[in-house]
Design brief:
Blueprint (H helix, E strand, L loop, with lengths): L1 H11 L9 H10 L3 H8 L7 H13 L3 H40 L2 H6 L6 H19 L14 H4 L2 H15 L5 H18 L4 H40 L6 H14 L17 H13 L3 H27 L15 H15 L10 H20 L11 H10 L5 E4 L2 H10 L6 E4 L7 H13 L2 E6 L5 H11 L3 E9 L2 E7 L8 E2 L5 E3 L4 E8 L2 E3 L4 E9 L8 E7 L5 E7 L8 E6 L7 E11 L4 E2 L2 E2 L5 E3 L2 E9 L14 E7 L3 E8 L9 E10 L10 E7 L5 E7 L15 E9 L7 E10 L21 E8 L18
Parallel strand pairs: 1-2, 1-3, 9-18
Antiparallel strand pairs: 3-5, 4-5, 6-8, 7-8, 7-16, 8-10, 10-13, 11-12, 11-14, 14-15, 14-18, 16-17, 19-20, 20-21, 21-24, 22-23, 22-25, 25-26
């Protein structure tokens, strides 16, 4: 039980730290399809359907969140540790069972895939079941119990174990095709054991018949899937262009992975240290060779033949179908339990043969593998993987900007899987492109999506981006660009909105605008000028003259209140050099109702130098030109809190008045005199309307709890809290200037609401951290003063003026 508890803890710690990667996205995609569609789709994939079917059922219970999906692999991983104990105990007694369970519990290779939304942890369960059932039917163990000398098939070779073996191997083959290597290994090992036992022909026939039964159980699927699978594999081999590995390299990489897993980060070049796991195994075999024992020879030989067949067949397939991606050793994870059992049984079998005074083998094995596990896991839990493919920031942006009627247009199924896992169920939903190449069907799907709402397009450009470029060209000619943001060198998000009804756009009263280098904004239209704060977009059509005078031109749009504070902004690199710029600015959820000003600016050059705006008299008026104003109203139905730009979510309830959902604040170290910008995101509760107008306070507390800096005032001056409606989402923006005399140190930023007439603060709902009952702690703030230069300068020409 202690080993199982350790196994569970190692597999759930930091379960959600790493992002989903492509293969996991495919798992979500397959598992969330109707069963008939999933079977059809997996026939064209590199893995059979059983795992996806089971994962689909699991997701019906726990949902599609990444951690919930990964718990399925966690459960399979812990079950495998229990089966390792059961099988090891049968093969070599309780010490071998405990050793096998412990080695598998701490094995980094197994932990890695017990935290992934893939089938590898599940196939290990079937591998252990099949190996254990085969060993029990064959009677393979270090010491034969009394009373097993009969030759009846029902007593010497119990039929129930043979049935269990057939079922386990069939399930393995419906989970991963490479399980055929394990089936071949166990079949050969079983024949060798039967030959060693001088078993009667009927026992040999039963064993061979079991292999035929496994083949018959899998045959229907193979007949259905093989034509599609061959085509898929042939294309994948060409696309991946992997080279076959030599025998030594192939064995070394897999045996090293069995010992230490995938070494991450700075340890990656030292992948071969996992081969140290062979040291206790070789030592045990040397001891066994000096004093051979029939039971040990049979048991070790059974496991060794199985493991050698798995590795050998894997290498032979690699010669004709070279498929060895990054971390490609995972395809033979099903051989890991045989490796662990072989090591455990060998150590236990060799233990009584040690010379008195010599060190015991079991502690040596534990020390070697515990050291390898500690080294590997230290990097595994902290080194980020798939950084270029981490879609969490991108999906978070779509959740924030999107609306229920919007569409996420995906080119790859794994992108759909990502959005199903990380997306907001009440926000934009993903739709897969109907074709992998541009054509009428893709164009029609885009037009349908634009007719419903905005289109958010995650572009994966590492594979050439041929369809992505065609989609961009199509949308760039007929839709307004809402976003054009890079998240990695190969990943970009664009957003698009269809133009409004013809004639609905209002001309900008601020045009024409003259810029210092000759660039001229001759006309601009804005549509609409009245909208709600529900991620609706203001659409701009900007017509330019002398655009060639501003190479590399970028355009910035900004929404500001009467005091000039920014409430929304967006920078664009226009997609088309000719014709007007079709752009859009999303009005974020939580923007308080009111009248706002629209501003435009342009930047040129690699460093983004802003162009100055000239007035009618040719004088510089700044770097922004005024385009007009828009009126923003509160939505009739509050949007989802997922649409708020929260850097840090909270669940602070202030009496029955308001709920503080989260905040965003200036990050990093600040200096005395700096401005600490804070945005607070509120939800009005039922007790707020008619309860008077409340004010916000922001304070910095020093180490003694004393106030070192403070600001207070209405959340939104033109939208007092007494007018907020129940459920309304409101963002308030505040500036806390740090005093110039503020001492260096670490401070705590707090906030809350109070009655300006009585200075009485609203109580924070019980259940919050109890530092105090009338404020909400936000985050620590580190203040470091500017360095002062006290050394006298050494001027080239001294003066005494």
């Amino acid at each position: 039980m202690a080993i199982l508890a350790l196994a569970l803890w190692l597999r759930v710690v930091r379960l959600d730290y790493q992002p989903l990667w492509w293969d996991e996205g495919y798992s979500v995609w397959f598992a969330h399809q109707p069963l008939a569609d999933m079977v059809r789709l997996t026939a064209e994939d590199i893995h059979p359907p059983l795992y996806y079917a089971l994962l689909g059922g699991w997701s019906q219970l726990l949902g599609l969140a990444p951690a919930a999906l990964r718990l399925f692999s966690v459960a399979a991983g812990v079950l495998a540790v229990a089966l390792a104990y059961s099988t090891g105990r049968f093969l070599g007694g309780r010490p071998a069972g405990l050793l096998a369970a412990f080695l598998l519990a701490i094995n980094p290779f197994h932990i890695f895939y017990a935290q992934e939304v893939r089938m590898y942890a599940l196939v290990v369960v079937w591998a252990l079941l099949g190996t254990g059932m085969a060993a029990r039917w064959l009677g393979v163990r270090l010491e034969q119990p009394p009373g097993v000398t009969g030759t009846s098939l029902g007593t010497r070779w119990p039929a129930r174990y043979l049935v269990g073996y057939v079922v386990a191997l069939a399930l393995a083959l419906y989970t991963q095709y490479y399980a055929a290597f394990l089936a071949a290994g166990l079949a050969l090992a079983g024949l060798w054991i039967l030959w060693q036992q001088r078993a009667p022909w009927r026992a040999v026939g039963a064993w061979v018949g079991a292999q035929g039964m496994i083949a018959l159980l899998v045959l229907p699927w193979l007949l259905y899937a093989t034509p599609r699978l061959v085509s898929y594999v042939s294309q994948k081999i060409i696309a991946d262009s992997d080279r076959p590995l030599g025998l030594i390299a192939y064995l070394a990489r897999h045996l090293s992975a069995f010992g230490a897993g995938h070494l991450e980060g700075p340890l990656a070049p030292w992948w071969f240290i996992g081969l140290l796991g062979l040291v206790p195994l070789a030592w045990a075999w040397i001891r066994l060779a000096r004093q051979p024992d029939p039971g040990a020879i049979d048991t070790v030989g059974f496991l060794l033949i199985t493991l050698a067949t798995v590795l050998g067949l894997g290498w032979l397939v690699n010669l004709s179908f070279p498929f060895f991606p990054v971390r490609g050793e995972r395809l033979l994870l099903l051989g890991l339990p045989v490796y662990v059992l072989l090591l455990s049984v060998s150590v236990v079998a060799a233990q009584p043969r040690l010379t008195p005074g010599r060190p015991a083998l079991a502690p040596v094995a534990l020390l070697v593998f515990a050291g390898l596990a500690a080294l590997s896991l230290a990097a595994y839990y902290v080194v980020p993987r798939y950084q270029g493919e981490d879609y969490r920031p991108l999906i978070g942006q779509v959740n924030q900007w999107g609306r229920p009627q919007d569409t996420v247009f995906a080119v790859f199924p794994w992108q759909v899987g990502y959005f199903w896992s990380y997306g907001d169920p009440s926000g934009p939903q993903p739709v897969l492109s109907p074709e992998p190449a541009w054509g009428p069907a893709v164009a029609e799907a885009l037009e349908d999506a634009l007719a419903r709402g905005h289109v958010w397009f995650p572009e994966h450009l590492a594979l050439g981006g041929f369809l992505e470029r065609a989609v961009e060209g199509h949308l760039g000619q007929r839709a307004h660009l809402l976003a054009n943001r890079w998240y990695s060198p190969s990943t970009r998000l664009t957003g698009w909105a269809a133009p409004g009804p013809a004639g609905a756009a209002a001309g900008s009263p601020g045009t024409p605008l003259e810029f210092a280098n000759g660039l001229r904004l001759v006309d601009a239209t804005v549509d609409p000028t009245d909208l709600a704060a529900t991620n609706e977009a203001v659409l701009f059509t900007l017509g330019w003259e002398n655009a060639s005078s501003a190479p590399g031109r970028r355009v910035s749009l900004r929404l500001a209140d009467a005091d000039g504070r920014t409430w929304a902004s967006q920078d664009f690199t226009p997609f088309t050099a000719a014709g007007p710029d079709l752009l859009g600015l999303v009005i974020p959820s939580g923007t308080p109702p009111g009248t706002y000003q629209l501003w435009v600016s342009t930047r040129v050059g690699e460093e983004g130098q802003p162009l100055e705006v000239l007035g009618p008299d040719g004088q510089v008026q700044g770097t922004e030109g005024w385009l007009g104003e828009v009126s923003i109203s509160a939505p009739a139905r509050p949007p989802s809190p997922a649409t708020l730009a929260l850097a840090q979510p909270l669940e602070a309830r202030l009496d029955e008045v308001a709920q503080l959902l989260g905040f965003s604040a200036t990050s990093g170290t600040l200096a005395p005199g700096d401005d600490l910008e804070v945005s607070l995101f509120w939800r009005a509760l039922a007790g707020l309307p008619g309860a008077g107008d409340w004010s916000v306070f922001l304070q910095l507390l020093d180490a003694h709890g004393e106030v070192a800096a403070a600001w207070e005032g209405p959340p939104v001056t033109w939208h007092p809290t007494g007018t907020w409606q129940p459920g309304e989402l409101v963002r308030s923006q505040h500036t806390l200037r740090l005093p110039a005399t503020l001492a260096d140190g670490r401070y705590q930023l707090i906030t809350g609401l109070f009655d300006p007439a009585t200075n009485a603060r609203l109580a924070v709902e019980p259940g919050r951290p109890r530092q105090a009952e009338d404020f909400v702690p936000l985050r620590p703030v580190q203040v470091v003063g500017r360095k002062h230069v006290m050394a006298a300068p050494q001027p080239q020409v001294p003066l005494e003026a």
